[in-house]
């Protein structure tokens, strides 16, 4: 949204509409935030780990020794090989292989891709939905507000995982049990998006109610700007700080939810495994002593979520938004 | 007070009707119920007869009214997978889930409060810092990973505890309990920890924050000035005042615990409602999914209602504010 903002667009609230159009981004990168970032070693480490995971996911085809989604590249001869540093290890399988001869390291890279794609798309979807509904509820008030917030209240009573599971089950029954991997991915994004919009909507609504009474909104109304323009271009940027915090924390939540759904067998299929699917598969071999099939995907997932959560915690303290 | 209680009760009924509509729509529109019952070579006439006997020809509002009336009597239809009434399946599975959820909640409260009090009183000790780190991990690690880790440690490597199931259970009428046998208790340990860990960290953080808040207040300072013992101040005055929000949160979280039991029950193959629900989602068994949604919503809404009312009873300060529309 902010990309479409023209630098010279008059906005009485921004005294310095300067070089970068992304005002909220500039605010996030303001010096005190950077200062607190540089002061916290833990946060810098978390940022580094997060960045590393994103890089690994993007560069997966270059780093992996095989494409784990392509059955032709898997050989049963290579099944259940232990990690390289153990006595039974075999090159090039750094972290060993699973029962189908799938290289665990490659599977983690590709699974990471899926987890991050679902997480990011889920956050984008729930964020867009929540921001829109929050803007509408806060700006117009009255019956619309009442309706949206009642739905939000009801939904907040139920844990997101339950809602996501239900949506997944309904989607399965409507599109048949044999969905291909791409539509499963879409259903996951949809389920996660619908499960997490409430927090955005509540926060945005709160900010909008505060901003609405300010002079610049009255000025924008007076010069005859239509409501959508006022909401998106003038009110929304002033509510962006808290949204960024929620988005970061929700990215971790979305990744957990995707992994949980896949672990429960309601997510990505075995032929195109995400981290959660890998853990479910590996869990079956734990008793046979083949710990590496579950341990490494589990460790990757835990490290990813922990570092994103640490970033979110830091961001919340640094921006100190009016959360709750 | 009465007006508040009534308003909350009406809200609760409204929520149940909304959930009922969703549950009914799932039941009726997500997949054709007739197709799930008949085989491929059932004739069209027979299908129509089944359709009529199930009342699927009636107008949708009539069907909804009938569904609701049946659901109110805990008649949820027949499971597609098991060919058994869903109500019986749920009834059979419910004791396992409730027992697990209760144990997890008690564990979370006892350990969470102890850890919270300790880390508030001895803020700068190593142990308090360890508690903080553990709480961050408890929030960050997905439930199923914690379960797998516990299974690997205590079932695979050490072999102390069983990795799945409930152990031996004792039957009282329709209720079964694992609390009276050694194997039942052993089987309960790891699932309770797995399920309770998130709540434990939540309660720990809450108690710590509340304690720190309360310890700064004037009446604590006054209690110190009166020369009360540290023990009396900390536990008689400070802790007592932090417990109201803690009990509220724990109460409200009980519903989530039951819902999150879905994951724990899958990891430990615990024969509860959550496992039934996951299997229903995997096998697209809509009647079970719809019934589970209704049951869990009923538990949620009831708990919320009771906690809301109790809260205003316990904390008189809230009574002046509850008449403002929330």
Can you walk through the features of this model?
The complex is a heterodimer of chains A (324) and B (326). Helices cover 66% and strands 0% of the residues of chain A. Chain A has a single domain, classed as MetI-like fold (Orthogonal Bundle), CATH 1.10.3720. The two termini of chain A are 25 Å apart. In chain A, helix 12 packs parallel to helix 13 (275-283). Chain A is mainly alpha-helical and 324 residues long. Chain A contains 14 helices and no strands. Chain B is mostly helical and 326 residues long. Chain B has a two-stranded antiparallel sheet with strand order 1-2. Chain B starts with a helix and ends in a 12-residue tail after the last helix.
What can be said about this structure in brief?
The complex is a heterodimer of chains A (324) and B (326). Chain A has 14 helices and no strands. Chain A has 324 residues and is an all-alpha fold.
Secondary structural class of chain B:
mainly alpha
Helix-strand string of chain B:
HHHHHHHEEHHHHH
Describe the main β-sheet of chain A briefly: none
Q: Kindly report how far apart the N and C termini of chain A lie.
A: 25 Å
Q: How far apart, in Å, are the first and last alpha carbons of chain B?
A: 15 Å
**Count of spatially separate domains of chain A:** 1
**Fraction in beta strands of chain B:** under 5%
Oligomerization state of this entry? Answer: heterodimer
Overall number of strands of chain A: 0
Mean pLDDT of chain B: 80
What's the β-strand tally of chain B? 2
Look up the CATH topology of chain A. Answer: MetI-like fold
Count of individual helical segments of chain B: 12
Write out the CATH superfamily name of chain A: MetI-like
Total number of helical segments of chain A? 14
Q: Shape of chain A, please?
A: elongated
Outline the low-pLDDT stretches of chain A: 1-19
Principal-axis shape of chain B equals: globular
In helices, the fraction of residues of chain A equals 55-70%
Cα Rg of chain B: 24 Å
Main β-sheet of chain B, in a few words?
2 strands, antiparallel
């Amino acid at each position: 949204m902010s990309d479409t903002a023209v630098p010279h667009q008059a906005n009485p609230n921004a005294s310095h509409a300067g070089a970068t159009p992304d005002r909220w981004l500039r605010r996030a990168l303001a010096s005190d935030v950077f200062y607190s970032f540089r002061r916290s070693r833990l946060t810098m480490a978390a940022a580094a780990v997060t960045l590393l995971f994103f890089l690994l996911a993007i560069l997966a085809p270059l780093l992996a020794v095989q494409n784990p989604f392509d059955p032709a590249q898997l050989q049963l001869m290579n099944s259940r090989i232990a990690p390289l540093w153990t006595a039974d290890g075999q090159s090039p399988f750094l972290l060993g292989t699973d029962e189908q001869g799938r290289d665990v390291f490659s599977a983690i890279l590709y699974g990471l891709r899926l987890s991050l794609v679902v997480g990011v798309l889920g956050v984008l979807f729930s964020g867009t939905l929540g921001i829109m509904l929050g803007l509408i509820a806060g700006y117009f008030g009255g019956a619309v507000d009442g309706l949206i917030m009642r739905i939000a209240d009801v939904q907040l009573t139920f844990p997101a995982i339950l809602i996501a599971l239900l949506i997944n089950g309904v989607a399965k029954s409507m599109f048949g049990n044999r969905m291909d991997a791409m539509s499963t991915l879409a259903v996951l994004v949809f389920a996660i998006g619908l499960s997490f919009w409430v927090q955005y909507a509540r926060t945005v609504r709160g900010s909008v109610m505060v901003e609405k009474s300010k002079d610049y909104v009255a000025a924008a109304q007076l010069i005859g700007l239509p409501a959508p323009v006022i909401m998106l271009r003038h009110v929304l940027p002033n509510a962006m700080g808290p949204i960024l915090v929620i988005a970061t924390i929700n990215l971790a939540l979305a990744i957990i939810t995707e992994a949980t759904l896949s672990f429960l067998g309601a997510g990505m299929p075995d032929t195109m495994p995400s981290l959660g699917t890998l853990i479910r598969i590996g869990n079956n071999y734990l008793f046979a002593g083949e710990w590496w099939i579950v341990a490494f995907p589990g460790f990757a997932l835990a490290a990813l979520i922990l570092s994103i959560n640490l970033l979110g915690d830091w961001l919340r303290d640094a921006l100190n938004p009016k959360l709750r | 007070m009465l007006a508040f209680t009534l308003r909350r009760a009406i809200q609760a009924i409204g929520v149940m009707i909304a959930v009922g509509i969703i549950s009914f729509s799932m039941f009726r529109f997500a997949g054709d119920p007739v197709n799930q019952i008949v085989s491929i070579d059932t004739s069209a006439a027979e299908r129509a007869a089944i359709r009529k006997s199930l009342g699927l020809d009636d107008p949708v509002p009539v069907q909804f009214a009938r569904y609701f009336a049946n659901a109110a009597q805990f008649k949820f239809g027949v499971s597609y997978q098991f060919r058994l009434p869903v109500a019986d399946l749920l009834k059979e599975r419910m004791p396992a889930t409730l027992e697990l959820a209760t144990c997890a909640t008690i564990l979370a409260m006892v350990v969470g409060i102890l850890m919270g009090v300790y880390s508030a009183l001895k803020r700068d000790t190593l142990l308090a810092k360890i508690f903080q780190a553990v709480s961050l991990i408890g929030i960050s690690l997905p439930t199923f990973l914690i379960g797998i880790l516990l299974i690997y440690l205590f079932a695979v490597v050490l072999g102390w505890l069983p990795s799945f199931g409930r152990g031996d259970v004792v039957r009282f009428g329709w209720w079964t309990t694992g609390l009276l046998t050694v194997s039942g208790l052993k089987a309960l340990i790891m699932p309770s920890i797995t399920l309770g860990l998130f709540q434990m960290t939540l309660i720990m953080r809450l108690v710590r924050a509340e304690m720190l808040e309360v310890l700064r207040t004037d009446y604590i300072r006054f209690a110190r000035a009166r020369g009360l013992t540290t023990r009396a101040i900390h536990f008689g005055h400070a802790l007592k005042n932090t417990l109201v929000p803690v009990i509220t949160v724990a109460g409200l979280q009980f519903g989530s615990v039951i819902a999150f039991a879905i994951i724990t029950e899958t990891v430990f193959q615990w024969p509860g409602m959550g496992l039934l629900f996951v299997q229903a989602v995997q096998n697209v068994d809509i009647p079970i999914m719809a019934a589970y949604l209704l049951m869990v919503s009923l538990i949620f809404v009831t708990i919320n209602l009771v906690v809301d009312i109790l809260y205003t009873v316990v904390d008189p300060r809230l009574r002046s504010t509850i008449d403002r529309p929330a």
